[in-house]
Design goal:
2 domains; elongated; about 260 residues; DNA Polymerase III, Chain A, domain 2; alpha+beta; 19 strands; 5-stranded antiparallel β-sheet; 4 helices; 10-stranded antiparallel β-sheet
């Protein structure tokens, strides 16, 4: 186990390399480069994709780690492809630590509990110049817990036959539909809402069209939430992007924001 406060500005340890690999893979589906931020509160990534269509926000609270240390706030830019390649080298059952030294170099250490065996890696950091993003205000006009397995199956299926999916709500019936229509056919599928009597909000009649390609990229986060048996929350609001929240635990999550397609496209 590394001594984090010895020559390092920040560091964290997860007991499962597999968990970290799944998280980084979910982020890498959307952005290939990102600034990774360490603060007293935890490990954060918030980044806009290259096409400026979606934003991904990842927040792993300090309490979600086996060990967490932050001497001072640190931001390092990273090519996520390189990070995923390194994480593939290790045994998924190993513990893993991320360490940022005093020169802002990025280190990965993998080790087997209660043994002296440890593999160490250093990954080159990059400068990423981007405006600092802030969390988007999302009025709770539509907010529902969605069955993750259902959502993954539906988005995968619709993506195979259509580039777009219309998501619309009927407030009177308290229901949301996923719909596509093209020359090859059409379908209207009611959303599988979980715990409809507990926290289900459908107060507006909204209709927006979204790219299935982007939604499909979000399904890695959905699968991650399913693995930890956590909630998946879908939110929609007037003149706001779609928000999909994939919980990792009670305080940690991945949020995906996706802009609606313009009707005349």
């Amino acid at each position: 186990m590394p001594t984090m406060n010895n020559g390092f500005n920040a560091g964290c340890t997860l007991s499962s390399l597999k968990q970290l690999k799944s998280i980084i893979t979910a982020i890498y589906q959307v952005v290939q480069e990102a600034n990774i931020e360490f603060t007293d509160e935890g490990f954060k990534i918030m980044s806009l994709d290259a096409a400026h269509v979606c934003i991904i926000e990842f927040n792993m609270h300090a309490s979600s780690f086996e060990h967490f240390y932050c001497k001072k706030n640190v931001v390092v830019g990273m090519k996520l492809e390189q990070l995923t390649k390194v994480l593939k080298i290790g045994n998924p059952n190993k513990s893993v630590s991320i360490l940022i030294d005093v020169d802002d170099n990025f280190h990965i250490q993998m080790f087997i509990a209660n043994t002296p065996q440890m593999s160490g890696f250093e990954i080159a950091t990059i400068e990423i110049h981007e405006d600092r993003l802030t969390e988007i205000d999302m009025p709770e006009e539509i907010k529902v817990n969605v069955d993750g397995e259902w959502l993954s199956d539906v988005i995968t299926g619709i993506n195979s036959v259509s580039d777009n999916v219309n998501i619309y709500s009927e407030s009177e019936k308290k229901i949301i539909y996923f719909k596509y229509e093209n020359v090859e056919g059409k379908a209207t599928i009611p959303c599988a809402i979980e715990n409809k009597e507990d926290g289900c909000i459908i107060e507006e009649d909204l209709r927006y069209s979204f790219s299935t390609k982007y939604l499909l990229n979000f399904m890695k986060g959905v699968q991650l939430s399913n693995t930890f048996q956590q909630k998946i929350i879908l939110q929609l609001a007037i003149e706001r992007p779609l928000l999909l929240i994939c919980k990792i635990d009670d305080v940690s999550y991945i949020k995906y924001y996706l802009a609606a397609k313009i009707e005349n496209e």
